[in-house]
Amino acid sequence: MSLGAQPHRGQLRVFLGAAPGVGKTYAVLAEAHRRMERGTDVVVGFVEHHDRSRTEALLHGLEQVPRHTLTHRDAQLTEMDTDAVLARRPAVAVVDELAHTNVPGSRNAKRWQDIEELLAAGIDVVSTVNIQHLESLGDVVESITGVRQRETVPDEVVRRADQIELVDMSPQALRRRMAHGNVYAPDKVDAALSNYFRPGNLTALRELALLWTADRVDEYLQQYRSEHRIRSTWQARERIVVGLTGGPEGRTLIRRAARMAAKGSGSEILAVYISRADGLTSASPKELAVQRSLVEDLGGTYHHVIGDDIPPALLEFARGVNATQIVLGSSRRKTWQYVFGPGVGATVARDSGPDLDVHIVTHEEVARGRGLPVARAARLGRARVVAGWLTAFGAPALLALLMLAFEPDVGFANDVLLFLVLTVTAGMVGGLLPALVSAAVCSALLNYFFTDPVHTWTISSGRNIVSLAVFFGVAAAVASVVDLAARRTQQAARLRAESEILSVLAGSVLRGEAQQEHGGPGPSLDALLERVRETFAMDCVALLERADERAPWTCAGSVGAVAGGEPPAGPEDGDTDMPVGDHMMLVLSGRVLPAEDRRVLAAFAAQAVGVLDRQRLLGEAEQARELAEGNRIRTALLAAVSHDLRTPLAAIKASVSSLRSDDVQWSDEDEAELLGAIEEGADKLDNLVGNLLDMSRLHTGTVRPLIKDISLEEVVPKALGGVPEGFVRLAVAEALPLVAVDPGLLERTVANLVENAVKYSPDGKKVLIKASALADRVEVRVTDRGPGVPDSDKDRIFEPFQRYGDAPGGAGVGLGLAVARGFAEAMGGSLEAEDTPGGGMTMVLTLRAAHGRAPARPRTPAHAAPGHPAQRPGAPLQPPRSGTAPHHPRSGARQQPQRSGF
């Protein structure tokens, strides 16, 4: 290197983790060993192994630069010694945790800034970062996990990396790794699995990492193709471009492309409409709007491109998006129209090259003609038209009188220019026809009064003839241009207003459909009609319908779809009507709409009918679901009454009959055993009848929770009143917030969960009850070590009258968990089932924290960001006995049945 030359910049390689614990640091150290074995000078600038034995073992054999020690708040902390690494000047430096915040007093505030110095010095760096530490994803990660990341790194720092490698692992595998103690210490595993490392959280973080990495891969690919000027298509995945003309065949093309895309995984549809730069087109905006909605419903995207020459513009777009196929429709032109050229489809197929497949799809509109552009006359208004004609006739005569009266000697050329100004003015005010008339009048006046010989229609000079001809031609041309510009300006303003109206309409509908998908009310028909009334300034808007042609018109909907005043009795009573189908009509009262407004009105009418149909279908589906559920419950109830209720009754009757028998002298022990059997059967009956009544209340909607702020310590012991001693261990976090619940419903919910857990726990394995706070909610976790339930059956165990596997005969009717989930949801909470690490099942009851007392935010480790709430282990709970509590085995060996849903 010559004196004074700047060193080349080092390369950055980032291992991006989908979640903490997936093995980023392990992968970095393995990469360091591979490079060292190839002879590369590698040092470890900073790596934190967090007491993980396998990671620590990989540090052996690697040179580690001594760390820099700093004192902060009377504590000795270590950071990477950037100066020492620069002085050592290795070829590659391993620096862990890109988003780490340095101790105050360090050389830089953030570790990524230290890495920038190493790169600037020509040192290659291998580093790590988790997806949740990217700056742009902070709010998203907090909404998913409930934990705000304090340490972040700008996205651009990671995007500038020369290589990005995703380190990924399935949520189930990561949770098993944690349960085996390979990530955190054993005393922190349960808290981590219960909070940050839930399966849902890990799945969402994994999706974020995959999407972010895929976006970066696309950037790499586009950058590489641009740098190497690659114009051909690389078929990394199928991208199908559909060329739209605005004609009716577009829907056929879109559906055909969707079928082609469905044959390959990951295929993408891009519909493109190419319009001319001058805005002159024969496309139907209404048809384009329908086709745009169709392609978006099928999972594709819609694009509008400006281009004067359609085939090159279409090919340029297809190659720009790296498309692999183009779908076009057969030409609608007549046979004689091919004399003007081969057509768009043939030209695109000829110029596409070997990298693009062009599909020509036949349709019903083939060779039927494309039609002429629709004339869109400008509505200038009566005042402007009158002013234009007055300008065309009066202004030239007035100018001629003034010029004759004062006789100014300005020359014939200037006379022509003065009259030309009047012609242009007439075109701007009144449009094309007044301008042409003005040009003719001005030419006649110039000829008669200002062209030799004057006061005659004879022109003696050939130059004057040319001047007058040029004047008329220029005047007509300028008037045409001015008129066209005025018309296009007005059309553009109108189309812009229409597009804004349709955009607002589509947005409100999409928001309503999204609300329906998430359980919301969906789009409102009344709100839509009110928007129609406001848009067109009407007094009343009503959607009318009738059963057949002879039936009278009535307002659609159960409560009448009308906005504004008194609805019209029929279409004849309104000022404007828009038919929708055979038996529906949108009727407006207030004024007669012009023809050009009916296109937007048609869109509103179609959407109103769609909203009405959707609401009716939802109502019918809900009724059908309720009927089916009622039939299923009645059938199951009959089965339960015929078996599960008769079993304890038979036991009670047998015991009572034995006690009343005079033939046998029962000892005190025998009598006590028979009385115990009677009590046990009565308890079973009481429990079964209670669950049946609770389920009946839930399905009839008569559960009305009385929400109040209460502490869990007031409810949980009451719920455990019937549990035998030594079967339950309680461990709750300190300083738990109050919960907003119905105490009675919560007590019954916890009792059912504990009963179910105790029933399936092996001998000697206590049921663990934990409670902890996370964000704005409180969780109660009931954990057993029983046989567990496969993921595919976790939801089924919460259904009424469902018993998973071979439940024993006395196991109940399968209502306990269904009642528990119903009560939890009635209180605004939720109940889910999760696997217990090491085997078993954990029921997670999520409750709302009371607003009056905010929950404490979980403390988050810097390297992983999960919350680890403090735990308070408790001794085995010894609650008081209750004669009405659910029955449990009292002593002796207990069978281990498979899990059942009660």
UniProtKB/TrEMBL annotation:
Which residue positions does the secretion signal occupy? none
Organism for this UniProt entry:
Streptomyces tubbatahanensis
Name of protein:
histidine kinase
Report if keyword Thylakoid is assigned. Answer: no
Keyword Membrane present in the record's keywords: the answer is yes
EC number assigned by the record: 2.7.13.3
Catalytic activity, reaction form: ATP + protein L-histidine = ADP + protein N-phospho-L-histidine
Enzyme's top EC category = transferase
The protein's topology relative to the membrane is: Multi-pass membrane protein
Question: Compositional bias of type Low complexity: which residue ranges?
Answer: 857-875
A Pfam short name: Usp
TM annotation in the entry: 386-405, 417-450, 465-486
* Localisation: Cell membrane; Membrane
Q: Could you read off the lineage of the organism from its UniProt record?
A: Bacteria, Bacillati, Actinomycetota, Actinomycetes, Kitasatosporales
Coiled-coil segments on the chain, per record: none
Which parts of the sequence are annotated with region: Disordered? Answer: 850-902
